[in-house]
Amino acid sequence: MKQRIDQIPTIWFIFSSLIGLFCLGIYVWGGIEGLAWEEVSELIPQSISLFPESNNTTQSSIFLVRQHYYVKLIAPVFWPIVVGAFLAIFGLTLLGQFLQSWAKVNWRQILLGILVWCGIIFWRNIELSPKEWFGFLHSPLIIISVIAAGWLCILSSSAIPSFMLEISHGPDKASSQRKFVGFLLFYLVNLILSMGNLWGFWTSTLYVPAFIILETSFALGMFRSLRLEDKSQQKLFAALFLLSHSILIPFLWNNNEVGIRAIESWGIMTHMAMILLFPVFLWANFKEPIQQNLAIYKVIHKAHFIPIYLIQIGVFILCVSWVFARQGTSWHQIVAAYYNEQGDVEHFGGGRMLEEMAYKNAMIHSKLNQKSNLSLARISQIAGDVEKQAYYLQTSQIKYPQEKNFVALANIYGNENQWFESLFTLKKAHQLFPESAQIATQLSRVYEQLKQLDSAAYFAVMAKELAPKTPITWANLLYFDVHHRSKIVQKNEIALWSTSSDRAVKSNLLALLWQKNQALPADYTQEALDFQLDVRDFAYIYTSSLYFKGQSTVYPIQTWIKDPNWLQKFPEIAFLDAWQDFYHQQPLRALNKLDLLVQRENETKAQEYLPILHHWKQQLLEVKAKVRLENVSQARSAIQNYPFSVGILQQALPLLHQASKHQEAYQASLAAVQWNEEQAEFYPIFINESFQQGEISYAEEAMARLKKLDPALYQTHAAAFSVAKEKAVNRQKF
């Protein structure tokens, strides 16, 4: 049991180190941003010759894919807040143990007081829902955690100087002093550089960021506290550590940057104050050991003339004065961070009005902080208030401009058809971020909207040069080449991009080769992709089906049509269904579907589909199949593939009758006549089938039609028609 108790400090140090490393990892990663890139794909129709192999001039539209970027406003994440709440509860428990040990109050009295307090709070707020309870209790937790973080910065501000004191001890007094002074000066210079970057005095990369210094001091302070014999002091430091990180984790993850900056500023100030007062503490308490070059950290339990807590109180007073000497910047930042955190909690509680109010309260204390502005822009977007959304996006980029903010703002102007405003916004962004492929892509789109094609092509090429491995830039260049015939795509790029698996690239590349009547690269393959309800997927399916015709992959189009989302988003899929049927051994069904589309669609679409319908019918008439049918299976297959072949019908229909498939035979002859009313050669077949089915009136109408179309052919079959009619009449007598 004693061995386990002895292991607790080690386990606790490992646990706290993991929490610190986790926070450092989030800091380096940057947390979730308020804005995120999203690729947007548009279908752009392009007229093209459908049947170049047959010298047919029938034109129809395929779809090119034009892509640009949409900036999505990101909502906060809830789990860091929950993790922080659990750490805060754990920290409060340890803090309660410290207070009980320090005040020597009986546990029963503490528990009784807590129960009474909780009972009163519950009785006065009994009507609150669980979500409201979480928000109600989380608010004081934020305040306590922020205070704990402030005190932890003060308590751990001596950790790094103490560590330097240990590692600088040398064999003689002079070397020890040189090392310690050197370390201290290096540390002080780094603090000054970090402070200057944090407060915007200068820009430098030759420094260790303030947050890393804080986490290092926290870890060293935790390690030093575990060596103390006073267990209550260990609990105090552990409680402050947990409470501090209970607020750091949600601040970092949800990118509450104003709170992180406030804690960094306070931490830098406490460390700078401590580095000035720490030598005074050493000389006042350890003058004799220093002169004898003794390891001071080994005689740390010597009675202090000036206790360390007096130094820490001095650091607190000095830093508070410093804060308000700077117009209370850090104070306003931490208050703004508090309201931002409240707004995040209200977001998950569903209180939209309270959420908006919290973010606006944050802006009272820090108008230019990104967290509040982007959160309010997200709320305005949901409410459909475009003007407010644009205002908050503009405000968020005044102090910390980002390319995503500019693109989001430009998109708003574009959606409102204010393309010149969008252009000016993007040109300013391009000056600040000349290496941004996303901004170049947006500029190309805006110039295209303004009909300035040379500038649009220039920025499309620039986007590809800035992001040579990004498929969206390839697809846009291919689109530009096909739609505007700009010839900006190089031959070597076509060979390179043919291996891409991106559907927009494959679709646009296929359209380019089709338009230029060039052969496909050897590396271009039709892929069996898992297609989704996506613009790029549909463009690839549509273009490849029209291009490859009978050699294309058979897609489950009829399954997709049953989903109303497909038809609503891509109504052209109905035409694609007919096209696939025609080129995959269902020509008659394809004709029926396309004929129905011609009748149902508007005049423009009907005029586009009619030539295709006529071409298909003519193509079926021109087919002269020479096959010998021997059984009913072959007969049915032949009729399906060649429904307008007289020779096939003459062979196949008797085989269907032998298998008692009389209705199928009649329907095959009827379809041939219906689709070819001016072709006399199909009428004798239909007339005989009608008499055999007892459809005497239909047969007589067909004979009258045949007599007008081709009198000679009618006379040739007149005797046979009379015999067939007599048999049909006799069958009806019984």
Short description:
The chain is mainly alpha-helical. Helices cover 72% and strands 4% of the residues.
Describe the structure.
Mean pLDDT is 85; it is low at 1-7. With 734 residues, the chain is mainly alpha-helical. Helix 4 packs across helix 8 (231-253), helix 11 (329-349) packs antiparallel against helix 12 and helix 30 (662-675) packs antiparallel against helix 31. It has a two-stranded antiparallel sheet with strand order 1-2. It contains 33 helices and two strands. The chain is 72% helix and 4% strand.
List keywords for this structure.
734 residues; mainly alpha; two-stranded antiparallel ribbon; transmembrane helix; transmembrane; TPR-like_helical_dom_sf; membrane; Tetratricopeptide repeat protein
What fraction of residues sit in β-strands?
under 5%
Distance between the termini: 108 Å
Q: How many β-strand stretches?
A: 2
**pLDDT under 50 segments (min length 5)?**
1-7
Approximate helicity band: over 70%
Structural class: mainly alpha
* Shape category: elongated
- What is the average of the pLDDT values? 85
User: Order of strands across the biggest sheet?
Assistant: 1-2
Tally of alpha and pi helices = 33
The major beta sheet can be summarized as:
2 strands, antiparallel
Q: What would you report as the Rg, rounded to the nearest angstrom? A: 40 Å
InterPro entries: TPR-like_helical_dom_sf
Transmembrane segments: 12-32, 73-95, 107-126, 138-160, 180-200, 206-224, 236-253, 265-284, 305-325
Keywords: Membrane, Transmembrane, Transmembrane helix
Protein name: Tetratricopeptide repeat protein
